[in-house]
Amino acid sequence: MALSRFKDLFQCSRAAVIGMIHVKALPGTPLNRHGINELVEMARQEAFAYKEAGVDGVLVENMFDIPYLMGASLGPEVVATMTRVCQEVRSIIPKRIPCGIQILAGGNKEALAVGKACGLQFIRAECFVFSHVADEGLMNACAGPLLRYRRSIGAEDVLVFTDIKKKHSAHSITSDVGIADTAEAAKFFLADGVILTGSATGTGS
């Protein structure tokens, strides 16, 4: 079922090419150097580039908000700014091309809210099943609360794709659980798809 939902969403026989829009540092973060209008305009320019390139999907992420806060500590300014950015991106990217969002770090509930408000098709979630130690701290599984929240706001049309054995993290506490078993657990807990990466951004899977 999960694979069929992925294929239905991206509608391509080959591997889907998803363009990343890394929003510059948001208000209140240590690296912030731009006002909200500037942040939005830079994201718009990236969206136009992906539209011209003909990618299969677009994912918006607050990549430059380092050092990251974990979900419960994220402020309303993050959700507000990402909503504004995603509204603009969604208005540029053709409707046939799915758009998604990830809010770092572990802002899965916040991402669902933005996704629902902006008409996005998916989110990238962290720590859906099992716990791990990320560079932000200890993260615990969120599948139960996250999918109940999705149901409560009527966002079941927003798919949840989840990282397993996430990069930039230590997994010694689940060293007896392999990648395949982790993926099976995510499937059992109703993830719409899983994401595999290397140990860090830019490294091989």
Characterise the protein shown here.
This protein is an alpha/beta fold and 205 residues long. The protein is 37% helix and 17% strand. The protein has one domain (2-193): TIM Barrel. It has helices at 2-10, 36-53, 76-92, 108-118, 143-152, 179-188; strands at residues 18-22, 57-61, 99-102, 122-125, 132-134, 137-139, 159-163, 169-170, 193-195. The strands form two sheets. The protein has a six-stranded parallel β-sheet with strand order 1-2-3-4-7-9, with helices on both faces. A three-stranded antiparallel β-sheet has the order 6-5-8, with no helix packed on it. Helix 3 (76-92) crosses helix 4 (108-118). The longest helix has 18 residues, at 36-53. The relative contact order is 0.13.
Summarize the structure.
With 205 residues, the protein is an alpha/beta fold. Helix content is 37%, strand content 17%.
Features:
6 helices, globular, 3-stranded antiparallel β-sheet, 6-stranded parallel β-sheet, TIM Barrel, 205 residues, alpha/beta
What Rg is obtained from the alpha carbons, in whole angstroms? 16 Å
Beta strands, count: 9
Oligomer: single chain
| SS-derived structural category | alpha/beta
Based on the structure given, which CATH architecture is correct? Alpha-Beta Barrel
Instruction: Sum up the overall morphology in one term.
Output: globular
Strand content: 15-25%
Helical residues, percent = 25-40%
Largest sheet: 6 strands, parallel
The mean pLDDT is 91
What name is given to the CATH topology?
Answer: TIM Barrel
InterPro entries: BtpA, RibuloseP-bd_barrel
Family: Belongs to the BtpA family.
